[in-house]
Amino acid sequence: MNKSDFYYELPKDLIAQTPLENRAASRLLTLDRRGGGVTHGNFCDIVDMLNPEDCLVINNTKVIPARLMGRRAEGSGEIEFLLLNNKGGDIWEVLVSPGKWAKVGHKAIFGDLLHAEVIEIIEDGNRLVKFAYDESHGIFEEILDKLGEMPLPPYIKQKLADPQRYQTVYAKEAGSAAAPTAGLHFTDDLLAQIRAKGVAIAHVTLHVGLGTFRPVKTDKIEDHTMHSEFYVLEPPQADIINNARAKGGRIIAVGTTSVRTLESCVDDSGSLAPGSGYTGIFIYPSHIFRAVDGLITNFHLPESTLVMLVSAFSTREYILAAYSAAIAERYRFFSFGDAMFIV
Questions:
Q1: Is 36 left (phi over 0), alpha (psi -120 to 50) or beta?
Q2: For the stretch 219-233, what's the b/e string if a residue is b when 16 or more beta carbons lie within 10 angstroms of its beta carbon?
Q3: Which has the least CB within 10 A, 49, 127, 142, 180?
């Protein structure tokens, strides 16, 4: 298939720049993935759309303040680091700007608390850097909380007043450079209503990298190389999901990150095996879903791997028609936008 097959026109004023005051006040478009029918409602309606036997699967990753602004240790000039992956200890894979400065051995200073040295140049021009700090000021994560900024997606131009609004209410495992945005619609009260209905809630962890915003550069989507992200599916959580399926319940993934994790851990029979590691699974039309029966997701960028994933879960034609309906109804798009329930 061609990348252009997944293009659609989006008015710029429909790109949500700020979150709604009430997380659950978003609108909800429901798509019948086999018949193409579309209905409109509110996100809080999701409680009524779930059955007691179902299992909701959430991604409990937590966004770290991964953008660091500093200066070069020698000479002059500002330097920006975006933390991508922790390689162990105080060594991180980072995206550096300006990249031409960051040669092996070059050092940077962030405030008075944190120093970094480039130790290797790796694929895609990213760097491995080793951080150094005075442990009397706390562990690395505590120092990062003091110095770092939340790395919002490039299409959001407004500064976020409350960084916690770019976290899900169930965020726990620090490691993401971007939020699993489908989960931003849930509140503690809404989750309590879902549990009270008898719906099981299981969690996975997939640390979202900035590769999620990387454009597809190949004309043929089959030639695209997907970025890898670290995931964890713990044994008790796999049991919760497998038990729900055994009882005839649906597995409802919250977000494309949950989908990628589940589809990376499933066997041909639909059974999930616990584990952890890096997944580079690329889901596009022709993929056979074995783990997921329903998907709660946001509206995604044209020609992105995410719109290809949701097209695989339904059809390209139904997804683009649903997006056209959402545009006509003035839905809000992307990270802080409204939601879809594809079932």
A1: left
A2: eebeebebbebbbbb
A3: 142
| CATH number, domain containing residue 129 | 2.40.10.240
Which amino acid is present at 112?
Answer: D
Q: pLDDT tens for residues 189-230?
A: 999 999 999 999 999 999 998 777 788 999 999 999 998 899
Final residue belonging to a domain, choices 105, 123, 147: 147
Over the stretch 30-52, which tens digit does the pLDDT of each residue have? 999 999 999 999 999 999 999 99
Tokens 């070069």 — which residue?
72
Q: β-strand 114-121 against 127-133: which pairing, if any? A: antiparallel
Q: CA-to-CA distance for 129 and 152, rounded, in angstroms?
A: 22
Query: Based on the domain organization, do 47 and 124 belong to the same domain?
Result: no
Radius of gyration of the chain (CA): 21
Q: Is the peptide bond before 19 cis (omega within 30 degrees of 0)?
A: no
Residue 155 lies in a domain: no
pLDDT at 133 over 90: yes
- Residue numbers of the domain that contains 81: 67-147
Residues 205 and 320 in one domain: yes
> Per the structure block, which two tokens stand in for 82?
């975006």
Residues 269 and 310 in one domain: yes
Which segments of 266-315 does DSSP mark as H helices, in order? Answer: 305-313
49 and 124 part of one domain: no
Q: How far is CA 38 from CA 29, 248, 310, 337, in A?
A: 7, 25, 15, 18
**The domain boundary residue, chosen from 147, 169, 196:** 147
Single pTM value for the model: 0.92
